[in-house]
Amino acid sequence: MRKLYSHPKSPTPADIVADIGTSAMNAIAKLEISSEHGARGKYNDQAGSPLFSALPRELRDLIWAFATAPYEDPKAKFENTAYYYRPGHTARLKTETAVLLTCRRVWLEANAFPMMQAEQSFYYYRGAPDGRDPEWMARLTKHNSQNLGELHLFIQMGTIERLAGPTWSLRDYFLIHRPVRGDFQPRVFRLTIRHTDWWSWENDAPLRLQDTWVKALLDAPELRSTPILKLELETLDYKADQLAVIVDRIKKLESAERSSHYVGDYPTMTRFELADEQDTSTWEGPTNIDGRVRQAYKDKATLTYHVVTLTWNLRFTSLPHASVPGLRRASVALSPDQNPLAVDENWGRAEGGLKFWYSAILPRRREPRMTEWTEGMKRYHFMLRFWTQVRWISRRQAELGEAVRRRQFEESCGAVLERRWAARWEAEKSLLKFVGHRIP
Fold first, then answer.
1. Which DSSP symbol is given to 41?
2. Of 222, 188, 23, which Cα lies nearest the Cα of 118?
3. Which residues of 109-123 are buried (b: 16+ CB within 10 A; e: fewer)?
4. Is the distance from CB of 311 to CB of 230 less than 8 angstroms?
5. Ramachandran bin of 405, using left for φ above 0, alpha for ψ from -120 to 50, beta for the remaining angles
6. Which superkingdom (predicted)?
7. Which whole number is the average pLDDT over 289-294?
8. What is the rounded distance in angstroms from the CA atom of residue 339 to the CA atom of residue 341?
9. Which residues make beta-bridge pairs with 123?
10. What is the mean pLDDT of residues 54-68?
């Protein structure tokens, strides 16, 4: 059953939280996440408060977003000569969560916003005091992992170049445990190369960057749940021309297509597409970086930094104008069982006449280059190939049957679910409504 949702064109919390579009399904996802904690049904509906009785849910979400937005703590300023000092990181980032303690009704609606809006910064060398580490990521609850907002990686050129190697992945910079579904899905991923992260910056060497790790970043399977990818390159103003050459080269890199999401019951290809406009900014800092004045800067009063930010958006290749929300991830197909199959001595009397097929088909296939194949090796090779095909056919039939049964179930329960959501939105004074299908 296909349903369409309407929503007013006023700004939504998604614009503030992650800048990932104005889809009503994002609001639905937030409601569902909050309901997992078992507190729904155990709260006072606060009918006497105009906040809940008069304001619609969308406006309340804007209030929660503003109340829990992170800010730079004026009581925890950084030294302006530190390696990590820059706009947006001049002090520790702080989030106020007092609003969540007012009542259960507020907590149910707003508990995801602090994590969704926070910027979690990881530094590989010369990090700030509020930097995170893989141990911190390992301590996150499932709820916090699902609501992870912006993940910001500050990293030196020599360290990020490992990403292009065959034995290194993006998650290795953040996680110390084995992969678990849903443990790495930030809404925004930002990677920053600071002026002090380039090769031989102390000697004022020319800028150089390998394209291989940028291509590996665009193709990273870990980011196929991340709608926005940002690459921030920072250098000094008199090297802007060198940086422009590198940026033009990066813009020509194309993201590989991956089957990463389900639309309905069908896996769909996604890829990162470069935004039309790049963001360029400048800022000024002292010449005594880390308390020392380098030879190249001794004649300068201040250093002017030139920053270029490239943005990629995750898109469906078959739906180029649609943004990718948090849909179901495509499951990884299990590889066939590689355990040796026991060859029965009476295998010729097996069901289906395997001995006949063995004698009729195997001689026509090209055998591996070996000095000599024994009869037992031929039988084992055939049985392994035969049962692998049988398992694949059986698994595919089960998947198709499950898809049909799921579609039949959704069609039969569609009206019930529609009534349930309509009643919930009405109770929350929400502006969301069903269109294109009426409740009988």
1. T
2. 188
3. bbbbbbbbbbbbbbb
4. yes
5. alpha
6. Eukaryota
7. 90
8. 6
9. 154
10. 90
* Residue in this structure with the two tokens 């196929």, named with its chain if needed: 224
316 neighbors 267 (Cβ within 8 angstroms): no
The band of 35, judged by pLDDT with boundaries at 50, 70 and 90, is very low
Buried-state track 133-153, b at ≥16 Cβ within 10 A, e below 16: eeeebeebeeeebbbbbbbbb
C-beta separation of 169 from 222 below 8 A: yes
Residue 177 near residue 138, CB atoms below 8 Å: yes
Alpha-carbon span 260 to 327, nearest angstrom: 9
On whether the CB atoms of residues 268 and 257 are closer than 8 A, the answer is: no
Q: Please say whether the beta carbons of 328 and 262 come within 8 A.
A: yes
Burial class (CB in 10 A: 0-12, 13-18, 19+), 10: exposed
Helix (H) or strand (E) holding 383: helix 375-427
Q: Which residue has the tokens 């800010």?
A: 71
Output the CA angle 185-226-231, nearest 5 degrees: 115
Which band of pLDDT confidence, cut at 50, 70 and 90, is reported for residue 38? Answer: low
- Phi first, then psi: what are they for 37, rounded to 5°? -85, 0
pLDDT on residue 173: 93
Residues 400-431 have pLDDT tens digits of 777 777 777 766 777 777 888 888 888 888 88
DSSP states of 215-260: HHHHH-GGGTT-SEEEEEEEEEGGGHHHHHHHHHHHHT--PPPEEE
Pairing relationship of beta strands 150-155 and 119-124 according to DSSP bridges: parallel
Show the beta-strand stretches assigned E in 303-436. Answer: 303-316, 433-435
The secondary structure of the chain in percent helix, strand, coil, rounded to multiples of 5, reads: 40, 20, 40
Dist CA 216 CA 169 (whole Å): 9
Backbone angles phi, psi at 352, to 5 degrees: 95, 0
| First-residue to last-residue Cα distance in the chain | 14
Give the CA angle between residues 239, 241, 242 to the nearest 5°: 65
User: Which residues face 433 on adjacent strands?
Assistant: 6
Residue 161 has pLDDT above 90, yes or no: yes
pLDDT at residue 371 greater than cutoff 60 = no
3-state secondary structure 120-147: EEEEECCCCCCCECHHHHHCCCHHHHHC
Q: Assess contact for 92 and 130: CB atoms under 8 A.
A: yes
Q: Of 297, 302, 300, nearest to 285 (Cα)?
A: 302
Q: How large is the angle between the packed helices 354-361 and 375-427, nearest 10 degrees?
A: 110
